[in-house]
Amino acid sequence: MSMTNTTLTYTYADLPELMGLMTGDEKHGPAATSTLDVLWVLYDRVLRVSPDGMTDPERDRFLLSKGHGPMAYYAVLAAKGFLPVEWLPGFGSYDSPLGHHPDRTLVPGAEIGSGSLGHGLPIAVGTALGLRAQGLDEPRVWALIGDAELDEGSNHEAIAFAGPAGLDRLHTVVVDNSSATYARPGGIAARFEAAGWSALTVDGRDHEALYTAFTAPHPGRPHVVVAQVEPKSA
């Protein structure tokens, strides 16, 4: 089954213009731009999901945990037809469905309400377990987290559980813009590998490298891609 949206109105080159439609004092610009390339490659080439298939039980699930800078997410959803481009200029306003944190009850295509650091990966683990319990073996679960979220203990509990549980439909992307408080010996990937995950580290701006890493085989194990981008302070 292929559920990728094939009606492409916008391209990657249009995303800066779409993001530019969203203004305001709480844009969290660096948090948004750090995720732009990851989001585009996922929605353009990897995720089996489309605007008309959001209730299909066989769809892939994408969970944005790094939800405190959602402009790139909204821009990609608009580019792929999940929500009207006309909504973008109202970002963050009182009567706009596009809040400073995505709300799954208001934003078409959003699987979870997000923004609280450390909650997305645990929800993704639960989602993968739930799909397994229902006998749904095709849907993949993707969670996008920021490196600073690894300061939260809830993520380490999720990492420690998912590996031994063999949740091979679970995928995580860690966007690493050097925001984490604590260094990790061997880097971020080593933390996941120690818990039995398949792990790759790539340039988070290189679309081909991202695609290759996202689609790498990892039988019997959950998979993490660490997407390194420029430091937040750069």
Can you give a write-up of this model?
- The protein is of the alpha/beta class and 234 residues long.
- It has a domain at 25-67 and 114-228: Rossmann fold (3-Layer(aba) Sandwich).
- It has 8 helices and 5 strands.
- It has helices at residues 15-20, 29-33, 36-46, 71-79, 120-133, 153-165, 188-194, 207-214; strands at 61-64, 141-146, 170-176, 198-203, 223-228.
- The protein has a 5-stranded parallel beta sheet with strand order 1-2-3-5-4, sandwiched between helices.
- β2 (141-146), α6 and β3 form a beta-alpha-beta unit.
- The radius of gyration is 17 Å and the shape is globular.
- Mean pLDDT is 91; it is low at 1-7.
Structural topology:
Blueprint (H helix, E strand, L loop, with lengths): L14 H6 L8 H5 L2 H11 L14 E4 L6 H9 L40 H14 L7 E6 L6 H13 L4 E7 L11 H7 L3 E6 L3 H8 L8 E6 L6
Parallel strand pairs: 1-2, 2-3, 3-5, 4-5
Helix pairs in contact: 3-4, 3-8, 5-6
Family: Belongs to the transketolase family.
Cofactor: thiamine diphosphate
Protein name: Transketolase
